[in-house]
Each structure stands twice: as structure tokens, then as C-alpha cells.
Amino acid sequence: IGDELDGNVELQRMIDDSSLIPSKDVFLRVAVEIFSDGKFNWGRVVALFYFACRLVLKALITKIPDIIRTIITWTTDYLRDHVIAWIRDQGGWDGIRAYFGTPTWQTVGVF
């Protein structure tokens, strides 16, 4: 999944186009786009985490670590408000393990 997300030109453009300091508006635009058709799946949940992680890395690289806690808050708020019911319906976070199988060192490296 990580390679697929790295190769997603549109997602990479949204990450690169975000301002030097990531904004909640940019985060929400991308989050809404990920789930724009109203369909949920584990790949999209992973994509949301991937995007949040990329913003955190961008904050570290540009030496603005103060925003990291804020990015985590945006992510957890969005999950709670829009995605958690679907996750619960899939058996909670254990559902991701059932979907992707038993983690190996390769899959752990993706996350």
C-alpha cells in the first residue's frame, strides 16, 4: 500500500501543494477527498494515516515540530467524527489485521 500511495500523483501533489505550515483546511480537503464517494475501506483509512504521517514528516523536515500534535488532533478528530463507526462495524482495529493478514516486518514497515 505504501508504494501505491507514494505513486499516487494526485495525493503527492496535495502533499506538496500544502503550505510550508500544514493547515487544517488542507488536511480536511484531502481527508474529504479520500472518502468523497462515501465508501469506506481499510485502504482509505490507511491512506488517511499515510497523509497525516507525510504532513508530520514535512513538519519535521521544515523544522516546525510544534504543529505535529495539531496534525495528530486533526487526524483523530476526523476519524472520530467520520470513520470510527465504520471501523467499529468492521470489528474495530482488529479488523485491519483480518483484512491485511498477520503483520510481517514488511507490512509493519509500511505503517
From TrEMBL:
Q: Which Gene3D superfamilies match?
A: Blc2-like
Q: List, alphabetically, the PROSITE patterns matched.
A: BCL2_FAMILY (PS50062)
Q: Which UniProt keywords apply?
A: Apoptosis
Designated gene of the protein: BAX
The residues covered by the Bcl-2 Bcl-2 homology region 1-3 domain are 1-93
Q: Which domain of life is it from?
A: Eukaryota
Q: Which GO terms describe its cellular component?
A: mitochondrial outer membrane
Any single GO molecular-function term of the entry would be: BH domain binding
InterPro entries linked to this entry: Bcl-2-like_sf (IPR036834), Bcl-2_BH1-3 (IPR046371), Bcl-2_fam (IPR026298), Bcl2-like (IPR002475)
List the source organism.
Answer: Oryzias melastigma
Q: Name one GO biological process term.
A: intrinsic apoptotic signaling pathway in response to DNA damage
> What name does this protein carry?
Bcl2-associated X
- CDD domains reported for this sequence: Bcl-2_like (cd06845)
PANTHER family linked to this entry: APOPTOSIS REGULATOR BAX (PTHR11256:SF42), BCL-2 RELATED (PTHR11256)
- Give the family, as the similarity comment puts it: Belongs to the Bcl-2 family.
Pfam families listed in its UniProt record: Bcl-2
